[in-house]
Design goal:
By secondary structure, this protein is of the alpha/beta class. Helices cover 42% and strands 17% of the residues. The longest helix is centred in the C-terminal third of the chain and has 26 residues.
Length: 324
């Protein structure tokens, strides 16, 4: 069964989404809107123009009645991780996730007409740095900062689960798309011929193309899934292989390694926990439920994501030219 056959959104559906302005949320919102779903974005602040919903997760403020009758609530809120961590920023990373998720879960639990499903963000960082160990959803969590954060993030959904709502915890890996995330930051140095492995290059990268990430989330809205689900492609690669593959796709050399010392100097703890950590994660539960990846290999995904970006750029240019 393919994702398109089993999970096409119903035009009568009302879906509420937080984090819709972010890298992942904006892509998912575009997809849902394009298929006729009634989409309500959660907007931070004291008010929001209809049909959107105002909330202030830092202050624990939302009108739960505005969620009543929504079929799905999708929670992707959280402060960005990819910057040097100060103690203040680490608190923001934790608080932004726990407060937003807890507020939504408690609000959902109070509703007379709760959503059928609550999809809430998480990350494969929950497994910690695990070397060559093969990991799936049954694997034990790690103990570092990201692992502890992800565990607390997932636990914050508990009020919704106890209220009988199907809760899906999406443990996202490295999402590939040139408009954001890791790939967006790597493109310029690679195009300049400055790409290469990070550290030893032996650490495993568990990745997924943005298109497959969006398709998989949509698939979960109707698939019989609850609890943790790894959102990664079925073929993780060592970092050195990622570097050579990206270089090949871009027709650029990828021979300039970035040493551990440079990562520590520039990024500190964040770099060690994200760029140098090894997580060899398998999407066991997605595959068991029949999800079929459109781009299961790294080269396929890179060519698709980079090619679709170029195509969209050329279409935009043609539209601008025709409007003059």
């Amino acid at each position: 069964m393919t994702h398109s056959e089993s999970s096409r959104p119903d035009a009568s559906r009302r879906i509420v989404i937080s984090g819709a302005s972010g890298f992942l949320g904006s892509a998912l919102a575009r997809r849902l809107s394009s298929e006729g779903t009634t989409l309500q974005r959660l907007r931070r602040g004291p008010r929001a123009a209809a049909p959107d919903i105002a909330w202030r997760p830092d202050a624990g403020e939302i009108d739960p009645s505005l969620l009543d009758g929504a079929e799905v609530v999708i929670n992707l809120a959280g402060a960005p991780i990819a910057q040097r961590w100060t103690e203040r920023h680490k608190r923001e990373i934790v608080d932004s996730r726990i407060r937003a998720t807890g507020l939504l879960a408690r609000s959902i639990a109070e509703l007379r007409g709760p959503p059928r499903v609550f999809v809430s963000g998480s990350a494969i960082g929950i497994y910690g740095d695990r070397g060559d160990e093969e990991l799936d959803e049954s694997s034990s969590p790690g103990s570092d900062f990201l692992a502890r954060t992800a565990m607390a993030w997932e636990e914050a959904t508990e009020p919704a689960r106890l209220a009988g709502v199907r809760v899906v915890l999406i443990r996202t890996g490295v999402v590939l798309n040139p408009r954001g995330g890791a790939l967006g930051k790597l493109l310029l140095p690679y195009k300049l011929g400055l790409g290469g492995r990070v550290g030893s290059g032996l650490q495993w990268m568990s990745w997924i193309g943005l298109e497959d990430w969006v398709n998989a989330v949509v698939f979960m809205l109707t698939a019989d899934l609850s609890g943790p689900v790894n959102l990664v492609a079925p073929n993780p690669v060592p970092n050195a292989e990622f570097a050579t593959t990206l270089g090949r796709v871009l027709a650029r050399p990828a021979r300039i390694p970035v040493p551990n010392a440079a990562i520590n100097l520039v990024f500190g703890e964040m770099g060690r926990a994200t760029l140098l950590a090894s997580q060899r994660v398998h999407p066991r539960r997605l595959i068991e439920r029949g999800y079929e990846f459109s781009y299961p290999t790294l080269e396929q995904a890179l060519r698709r994501e980079l090619g679709s970006a170029e195509l969209e750029s050329s279409h935009h240019g043609a539209e601008v030219a025709s409007s003059k």
